[in-house]
Amino acid sequence: MSLNIAQRLLPGWGVTYGPAGDGPFPAVMLLHGSEGAWAGWSHRDAMLFAAHGFLAFPYGYSSGGNAWNAGHIIDYPLDRSVEAFNALRDFQFVDKQVGLYGISRGAEHALLLGSLMAKDAVAGMPDAIAAHSPPDAVCGAFDARGFRDAGDPGWQAWDVSKRAWTWQGSHEGLLPTTPIEIERYPGPLFLSHGMQDRMWSVEMTKRLEKRLYGHGRHPEVHYYEGEDHISSSAGQNIHYQRLLDFFTKSLIKPLSR
């Protein structure tokens, strides 16, 4: 039996997953949440994309950590994500159409990249962006070593003195509570959120949607009734069907007649 999904190394960056064969394939770069690069969820999602004809790159941007510890998101240079994205676009197996998909902190990451690249006219913007459970404002730094569930004796709030992101060597415009200006991004946009999300309120996506409509934008938005921050199996089936449909229509050009 031959493999239907092949792993390919994106030189200098990491492993990708895609259909067997030489391609080229439409591609998606995946951004994990605070679970970190070692957790493997973005690799699982990459396999799902690969099974449906995409070349998927799960980009690990968290620092430190290991298979038992998530590491941290502190002073991460978003410029490096632009470099990774451009490397994926130039990969020999990629059909030049490249999307960006993030979950939770990865959704924040994706929206920030879209807004900052548009603001500063950085070449090579994503051809489409999808964000699940996103915030509507910049959040503080995350360090898994200090994380505890609310109610745990060791629980503490984020250290507001630490920053999650930098852009062009600066925290300017990236301080916690600063609105994410995703309305600057001109491409196709997909937003989704569980209505019963107990980690990041669905109201954040509702505010994003309202602001986008106020700027004449019409994103594709989905709210999942009864779903928490991590969706049920049934909820994930619905979400990934809609997500794949979005990237298919956004990245795969119809054949000319």
Record the SSE blueprint.
Elements: E1 5-10, E2 14-19, E3 25-31, H1 41-51, E4 55-59, E5 72-73, E6 76-77, H2 78-89, E7 94-103, H3 105-119, E8 128-132, E9 142-143, E10 165-166, E11 189-194, H4 203-214, E12 220-224, H5 233-251
Parallel strand pairs: 3-4, 3-7, 6-10, 7-8, 8-11, 11-12
Antiparallel strand pairs: 1-2, 5-9
Structure description:
Pfam families: Peptidase_S9 (PF00326). Residues 139-251 form the Peptidase S9 prolyl oligopeptidase catalytic domain. InterPro entries: AB_hydrolase_fold, Peptidase_S9_cat. GO terms for molecular function: fatty acyl-CoA hydrolase activity; serine-type peptidase activity. This is Thioesterase. The chain has helices at 41-51, 78-89, 105-119, 203-214, 233-251, and strands at residues 5-10, 14-19, 25-31, 55-59, 72-73, 76-77, 94-103, 128-132, 142-143, 165-166, 189-194, 220-224. With 257 residues, the protein is of the alpha/beta class. It has a single domain, classed as Alpha/Beta hydrolase fold, catalytic domain (Rossmann fold). The strands form four sheets. It has a six-stranded parallel sheet with strand order 4-3-7-8-11-12, sandwiched between helices. The chain starts with a strand and ends in a 6-residue tail after the last helix. The model has no long low-confidence stretch (mean pLDDT 91).
